[in-house]
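Reposting from the mailing list since nobody answered there.

I have sequence plus structure tokens for a pair of proteins and want to know whether others read the tokens the same way I do. The first protein:
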Amino acid sequence: MIYFDNAATSWPKPDKTWKAMEHFMRNIGANPGRSGHQQSIEAGRILLETRVALAEIFKVADPLRLVFTSNATEALNLAIHGILCPGDHVITSSMEHNSVMRPLRFLEMKGVELTIIECSPEGELDAHEIEKNIKHNTRLIILTHASNVVGTLLPVYEVGEIAERYNVTFCVDAAQTAGAYPIDVGTMKIDLLAFTGHKSLFGPQGTGGLYIREGIEKVLEPLTRGGTGSKSEFQEQPDFLPDKYESGTPNTVGIAGLGAGVRFILSQDINNIRTREEAFTHMLNKELKSIPGVKVYGCDDAQRQIAVVSFNITSLTPSQVAMELEETFHIMCRPGLHCAPAAHRTIGTFPQGTVRLSAGYFNTEKEIHYVPEAVSQIAARSRRGGLSHVQAR
């Protein structure tokens, strides 16, 4: 099996990830922050050490400003629902995932004004269009760091400068970039950074978080309220981080795995990971574009995108191509709309979608070259009128 679906979830994980989870389940197992015994204290230490590792990777000065959630979707909902009220104005792009679009569309029905900046067919955003649409009531700018459809990086640095200049809260969806691309929340002027643990951070599913810049917690309402293990004598929610946003028993076993995954990234150096994946992206773009009947989408520049490449083959649906890649060549990828219909409208592939190949750190150069060979065979067979006799190499 050749796995090219890392944009959905990374696989395989470093051995350290599952070993850390097994260690927790076998040797610790207790609830952090709810007891004073040794096991509970050790569980709490796991949470803190994971925050410290995440703070290092995102260049956050205070690890307690990193709040754990179950995934990036929950983190984005916390940011969106916690900031916006009826009468507020929010700006986003046409390349957003439904984890941004659906909460915004819901709030639009409740009286929040929504502006969607149209990106180019390559998925690129002009930061000046953001600035031109800022109003007196603009409360939030929210952007994906990189498209999960075509991999194009959005101009986070430039938009961060604009948001700071106009005193507008800036939220970044880093689901596709956290762990795969260097992120400095201070330099990028990011107020809220939503991330997931199960993709390029090499953690398990069910983990993620939100970075909250100092001062934002004064206006950011929590999604849930309840037991935190702190200030138990009060029936009101604590107002300090991270407890204000972390009610209920945490996914400590998952966070143990996430911490191990992040420490693996730190040991490899995220710049080395980025260089490796950039080279993979360049190879895929170049080789796929050379195949007759294949259309590749996006900016076609590995330096301006992450390791996500979308394509279609003339006269075949994405599902047909993906099925043939799996059944004949044992290549796992993802066809369709990728939970981002607005992005597909932007690049002109709605409602059919695309075939998405997403390489990861653990892929090999041999695998990278094998995939275009397989696509070439499928495209050639399609041109001759059928797929039934395509053979794996």
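The second protein, same order (residues first, tokens after):
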Amino acid sequence: MLKTFRFASLLEGVSYLLILCVSLGFISRDYVFTIGIAHGALFLLYFVFSLIASHKQDWPLIVWLMVLFAAVIPFAFLPVELFLQKELRKIENNI
């Protein structure tokens, strides 16, 4: 489940950066609707996968809230990626 959440996190983070690129003028405003719909869907997936992952990993509420809050901060998906890699290593070492 963590690998799926990790993938969703990366996709959501990149889509958020694309939205920011549109607002900064790097990408044409013709793509706002398409990128916006994709980002919205990816954000919802991120939310659901974060709930499932936090439940399966028994994360404290504060950890889940920090992971969720990272979805609204540009480039915060990178520390989440490092956190998820660390969690995956812990799982692999226990097996």
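Reply #1 (J.P.):
I read it the same way you do. DSSP finds four helices and no strands in the chain.
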